TrEMBL record:
GO terms for molecular function: alcohol dehydrogenase (NAD+) activity; metal ion binding. It comes from the Bacteria. Belongs to the iron-containing alcohol dehydrogenase family. Residues 187-382 form the Fe-containing alcohol dehydrogenase-like C-terminal domain. Residues 7-176 form the Alcohol dehydrogenase iron-type/glycerol dehydrogenase GldA domain. This is Alcohol dehydrogenase.
Length: 390
């Protein structure tokens, strides 16, 4: 027995941004709080959104106080701005950080306390109100934040999350046009983030037939298109497919969960400020090099979705080929394949291990339990760029 959860409405496709007008007419709101990445305002990417909002006669308050990997302080500042706006609707536009801040803003408008009071690892409070409705509009193809109920925040040496059904979007609008101007490095890191979501969801201990179907579709779609999306800025079809694949991966991992890659990536972001997509990408091959013996059938399925040759090979051989493929893919899209690129050294390993092991919410979904010894080996392998079993 299982359940599947998603936003109330998901709009996808070129031109779907226009559905924001339908949302406004449905909700009949008068005050809207917009959370947007600052670059989107500078590049006038959010102008069509503001035009739709003002065209419906609503009062618009815009905050561009969004930073990558937002801290608790940034989160609380955004919450205060949202409360002061007295908004009846929150619209989030941008990458994962902007969407996560928009979720928090919408819920905290009608709840007391600060972000720190509701964190997974240390928070003690529970939300009493749903807050106000929220519309989430991604401008990257990677985080899946528009279809999840998770808000991620950076702490001093790791990350923690708020997760609650009230944080789930009421409306998600995925218009690929919003991603067409992304630079190669953002396309690569967000794309590898989405691929990691799909792969971890597929091998999660909480996977279901429905999440599996979405994950496999996403794995194939992303792997076929990510190279061209990164390096050919005129291949809009590839970017359209990346947007769809990212959404599929987001729906899959929201319901099945992610595991070891994300658990060990969080300390990289907290301690060393490695961007989230890159931290997932650099660890992905090394985590699966460690855990593949526990999910050989699933690794064979991933191999087929990736287009890895499987005929005449055992599932173990396919799994090893998948790990090598993932390492080559990270390199192909121009992302680092070792932790040493981020000035991480052997002396940093024990602190990474300690912080990674604290992410029990994620680690418990791994198909193979990750012991302290296994986590340490993964970090060391990623530091040196060496695979143990593949």
């Amino acid at each position: 027995m299982y359940q599947f959860v998603s936003p109330k409405k998901v709009y996808y496709g070129e031109g779907s941004l226009s559905r924001l007008q339908d949302v406004l007419q449905e909700l009949k709101v008068h005050r809207v709080f917009v959370v947007a990445d600052p670059a989107l305002k500078d590049l006038q990417v959010i102008d069509p959104i503001i035009h739709i909002l003002e065209g419906e006669g609503v009062e618009v308050t815009i905050s561009t106080d969004v930073v990558p990997e937002p801290s608790l302080n940034v989160g609380n500042q955004m919450v205060e701005q949202a409360r002061e706006s007295q908004a009846e609707l929150v619209v989030g536009v941008g990458g994962g950080s902007a969407l996560d801040l928009a979720k928090a803003a919408a819920v905290f408008i009608d709840n007391k306390g600060g972000v720190e009071d509701f964190l997974n690892l240390s928070g003690q409070q529970k939300f009493e109100s749903r807050g106000v409705p929220k519309v989430l509009i991604p401008t990257t193809s990677g985080t899946g934040a528009e279809v999840t109920d998770i808000s991620v925040f950076s702490l001093e040496d790791t990350k923690d999350v708020m997760t609650h059904p009230y944080l789930l979007a009421d409306y998600a609008i995925i218009d690929p046009v919003m991603t067409y101007t992304l630079p190669p490095n953002v396309t690569a890191s967000s794309g590898m983030d989405a691929l990691t979501h799909a792969i971890e969801a597929y091998t999660s201990k909480h996977a279901t037939p429905l999440t599996d179907s979405l994950a496999l579709e996403a794995i194939g779609r992303i792997s076929r298109n990510i190279r061209s999306a990164v390096w050919n800025d005129r291949d809009y079809k590839a970017r359209e497919q990346m947007a769809l694949g990212s959404m599929q991966a987001g729906l899959s991992f929201y319901n099945a969960g992610v595991a070891g890659v994300h658990a060990l990536a969080y300390p990289l972001g907290g301690l060393h400020k490695v961007p989230h997509g890159e931290s997932n990408a650099v660890l992905l091959p090394f985590v699966y090099d460690s855990i593949f013996p526990a999910c050989l059938d699933k690794m064979a399925g991933i191999g087929k979705a990736l287009g890895v040759p499987v005929e005449g090979k055992t599932n173990r051989q396919v799994a090893q080929s998948v790990v090598r493929y993932l390492l080559e893919l990270v390199e192909d899209v121009g992302l680092p394949t070792t932790l040493s690129v981020y000035d991480i050294e052997e002396k940093d390993m024990e602190r990474l291990v300690d912080n990674g092991l604290q992410q029990t919410r994620l680690l418990k979904r791994s198909p193979k339990p990750l012991s302290e010894t296994a986590v340490r080996q993964i970090y060391f392998n990623a530091l040196r760029g060496e695979l143990t079993h593949s």
